[in-house]
Amino acid sequence: MGENVELRRAREADIPALVGLIETVAAEGRWIATESPLDRERRAAGLRVRLARSDGAVFAAVAGEAIVGEIWISCDWPGLCEFGMAIEAPWRGKGIGHRLLAAAIAWARSTGAHKIALDVFPHNDAAIALYEKAGFLREGYHPRHLRRKNGELWDVISMGLLL
Ligand SMILES: CC(C)(COP(=O)(O)OP(=O)(O)OC[C@H]1O[C@@H](n2cnc3c(N)ncnc32)[C@H](O)[C@@H]1OP(=O)(O)O)[C@@H](O)C(=O)NCCC(=O)NCCS
Fold first, then answer.
1. Cα of 12 to ligand 1 centre, how many Å?
2. How many domains is the chain built from?
3. Is the pLDDT assigned to residue 157 strictly greater than 90?
4. Domain harbouring 49, CATH code
């Protein structure tokens, strides 16, 4: 299981590892909107901004020295937060996603936010099950919503959790 995995706030020194994690998960080509090849510089710059924001947080799941999972959450509208998360494939199904999501929800609550929202692909059973277990509801279905690099148009489900 993932008991030997620790959660902590991410810091600037983690940026290369966080970019690498997203690159790996993007390369799977199925789960997240970001696609390969990643613009590493742009991603790193985005993370640097995210880490400096007071209306957002990034948590890392760390096994030994390695970052094996992450969740970012930020509130671009007053009290309305969005998040994205990713766990390295070998570390999935060990409760790490559940712990990261709980940390992000607790952070959002601590800021007085009223809602957390996100988009997910309908074929992402693991993510949808994780979110529903945390109390998120399916709020909308958007057919042929996101254009992939290969030209396919993928459906998207929007989900939300009222805090
Ligand atoms: C989605 C993701 C974050 C889940 O994290 P995880 O660490 O694997 O999830 P956990 O082990 O904490 O599981 C939590 C719950 O999710 C559900 N779940 C996890 N894996 C599942 C699977 N393969 N199928 C169905 N449900 C699953 C279960 O309800 C589970 O609770 P349970 O163990 O009590 O039954 C992870 O699979 C991942 O990083 N996937 C690739 C990137 C991604 O999809 N990001 C989200 C994009 S919206």
1. 27
2. 1
3. yes
4. 3.40.630.30
